[in-house]
Amino acid sequence: MSKVRVLVGTRKGAFILSSDGKREKWDISGPHFAGWEIYHMKGSPVDPDRIYASQTSGWFGQIIQCSDDGGKTWHQPGSAPGEEPAPGTAVGVSNKFVYDASDETGKPLTTHQWYDGTQHPWEFKRVWHLEPSLTDRDAVYAGIEDAALFRSGDGGKTWKELPGLRGSDTGPRWQPGAGGMCLHTIILDPKDPLRIYIAISAAGAFRTDDGGKSWKPINRGLKSQYIPDPAAEVGHCVHHVAMHGSRPNVLFMQKHWDVMRSDDAGDNWREVSGNLPTDFGFVIDVHAHEPETIYVVPIKSDSEHFPMEGKLRVYRSRTGGNEWEPLTKGLPQSDCYVNVLRDAMSVDSLDSCGVYFGTTGGQVYASPDGGNNWSAIVRDLPGVLSVEVQTLP
Amino acid sequence: MIRVELPQHLRTLARVSGEVKIEVQGQVTLRTVLDALENSYPVLRGTIRDHDTQVRRPFLRFFACQEDWSHEAPDKPLPQEVCSGKEPFLIIGAIAGG
User: Fold this and answer.
1) Structural domains of chain A ordered from first start
2) Cβ A60–B47 below 8 Å, yes or no?
3) For A392, which of A23, A193, A258, A289 is 20 to 30 Å away at the CA?
């Protein structure tokens, strides 16, 4: 029988929730890396027991963790604390993210726009998102703050920036959102290995069609009333983007405000907020087997980061947007004031698609039937930063 | 033999308990102590000082013999009590929030 593994990153450590295909009884493992912020964990599609984790701290900086046994044990790539490293091993640099400033990149940027409109140096702060390669267990991408895209080809031992993104003409106009200037979304096209989508708060969405050498903003159709030019080429606070693997040209976006859709690989967007009670939110995801079924969690506003009326509701559209239905069965419908952060929703790929999300209040909810019924796997974790799901044979 | 006391999170990361004991060749300074520490525990690289600039991370402080060494020159010799192992070299995380 198939199994499900839910990788949960929280403010104070990582947790791994495991169940069989029924998804009724769960084993809870953790906290791993207790006391540290775990921004994101994700398993390799090639080898699901290879899991990468971003462990961060305002005091001690960035650590990359790696597991080769499905999260039972962890190590820092290339490092073995207290032991003599093997000859030629890259030791102690798996957390070294240095912006590219080489001559070969042409014109390395040194500043981006700060909150007050002045230019500000790029400063590495943390890894927000790790996206393992679809074809190579040792290849993984990292989306970092201040926004840039890095890649490792050696299992996370060493990292190199893909400087074409930051080196695009728009770089000096990027600016941080309230959570920092983070590259939080990385989507690899399963049909075209040279195409990658990324999203940055608050710059917008970008696409490469040449494996990361060059990038272009893909924000036409986005309208953000809170910036000087609402239809600007960059400057939009994109919260998350989702795609179904069978249709890599169709993208769904939860923007700061507005739920958006593109049918041409991001070249043009149109709003599909439809009858949502509020179109502010962070997460968006797509059903594993129904590419037109999408999920969001509407949040009241950008200053009130909690559900409307204290009711935690997932909204589902079976029409690719515009027509939405609230999903409430098993979710708190009074006095609930949690948030659901941008990387904290995921789906499994069992026959009856499971949907999962975590809250800032420490609950991880699961629905084994596409959102019709919900229950909490756990209720009292530290605030949840990210949720990823692995469907295992 | 130099005794180094790490913040709890770095002890966990390096998988050590209590004080760390390291050998320093030549003059004992902030730089040589941290170099020796990172050589023994490579995972600590980048967690105490920046990989490239070697600047101390802002929420960490260095103390020795009840004196603040956080802002001292990296090549200034540490007190004899630290060099002899009588006193530990302290790496302390700032108290700031939860």
Assistant:
1) 34-80+91-378 (2.130.10.10)
2) yes
3) A193
